[in-house]
């Protein structure tokens, strides 16, 4: 089995002028290619922080992280950026769409950053936007869309590069039952078709339990 993630966090500290918060104490995570893992735990426990670390968005913590066989400390800024663009798909709580671009251009944005679009096929765009029911909003701008429509666009942008690893933060939070099902089905289909590794933070236990492994984050003193 191909281990793609080996993370050992001693602690992550958030410091402000008056206080200091230490979370993810002695947290360890090993993930193998193609696994589907969910992360649950009360609000504030550190799920989003963990996804940011896993996605190389936050490198400011005590610990070691081996991703795709490389110690992340050894990667330079351009390698980190390339991996974030090509190997990792982000469907994060804070992912914002660019308001001046259409939904279609927002979804295709990662392709612009990629040096070569070799992995990309226009049928992927068709298939993804069809599967999650957003064909009718492709020419709209984000401000003309509902919250659920925007979250589906964020989802499409996160998977368009067919990344090896998809990190999802509450991907179904603002969706009705049917659209939630579309998102989860597409996510799991990518897992099946491309052996994509999926890590999903969620408060929705029904969604969490559909992953192979559920990790419960707990606050430790
Ligand atoms: N940039 C920051 N500066 C200071 N503290 C922060 C920062 N980001 C997060 N925190 C704190 O770290 C803790 C973990 O936050 P995080 O967003 O990871 O929680 P979460 O488990 O994702 O919560 P939720 O379920 O509400 O999304 C919280 O107590 C939060 O207040
Ligand atoms: Mg969060």
Notes on the protein architecture:
- This protein is an alpha/beta fold and 221 residues long.
- The protein has one domain: 3-Layer(aba) Sandwich (Rossmann fold), CATH 3.40.50.
- 34% of the residues lie in helices and 24% in strands.
- Strands 1, 2, 3, 5 and 6 form a 5-stranded antiparallel sheet that branches. A 5-stranded parallel sheet has the order 7-8-9-4-10, with helices on both faces.
- It starts with a strand and ends in a 5-residue tail after the last strand.
- It binds adenosine-5'-triphosphate and magnesium ion (MG).
List the helices and strands and how they pair.
Layout: E1 3-15, E2 20-23, E3 27-32, E4 36-40, H1 47-54, E5 62-67, E6 70-71, H2 77-86, E7 88-91, H3 103-113, H4 122-131, H5 147-159, E8 165-169, H6 177-194, E9 197-201, H7 205-209, E10 213-216
Parallel strand pairs: 4-9, 4-10, 7-8, 8-9
Antiparallel strand pairs: 1-2, 1-3, 1-5, 5-6
Helix pairs in contact: 3-5
Bound molecules: adenosine-5'-triphosphate and magnesium ion.
In short:
With 221 residues, the protein is of the alpha/beta class. The protein has a single domain, classed as P-loop containing nucleotide triphosphate hydrolases (Rossmann fold, 3-Layer(aba) Sandwich).
Mean pLDDT across residues: 91
Order of helices and strands: EEEEHEEHEHHHEHEHE
Overall 3D form: globular
Helicity level, as a percent range? 25-40%
Short key terms for the protein model shown above:
binds magnesium ion; 5-stranded parallel sheet; alpha/beta; 5-stranded antiparallel sheet; 221 residues
């Amino acid at each position: 089995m191909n281990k793609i993630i080996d993370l050992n966090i001693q602690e992550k500290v958030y410091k402000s002028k008056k206080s200091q918060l230490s979370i993810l104490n002695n947290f360890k995570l090993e993930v193998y290619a193609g696994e589907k893992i969910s992360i649950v735990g009360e609000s504030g426990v550190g799920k989003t922080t963990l996804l940011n670390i896993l996605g190389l968005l936050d490198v400011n913590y005590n610990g070691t992280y081996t991703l795709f066989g490389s110690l992340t400390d050894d990667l330079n800024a351009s390698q980190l950026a390339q991996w974030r663009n090509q190997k990792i798909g982000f469907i994060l709580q804070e992912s914002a769409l660019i308001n001046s671009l259409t939904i279609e251009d927002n979804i295709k944005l990662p392709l612009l950053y990629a040096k070569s679009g070799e992995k990309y096929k226009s049928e992927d765009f068709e298939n993804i936007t069809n599967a999650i029911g957003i064909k009718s909003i492709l020419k709209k701008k984000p401000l003309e869309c509902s919250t659920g429509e925007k979250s589906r666009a964020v989802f499409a942008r996160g998977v368009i590069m067919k990344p090896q690893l998809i990190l999802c933060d509450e991907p179904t939070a603002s969706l009705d039952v049917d659209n939630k099902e579309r998102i989860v089905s597409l996510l799991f289909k990518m897992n099946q078709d491309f052996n994509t590794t999926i890590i999903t933070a969620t408060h929705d236990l029904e969604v969490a339990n559909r992953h192979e492994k559920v990790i419960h984050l707990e606050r430790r003193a």
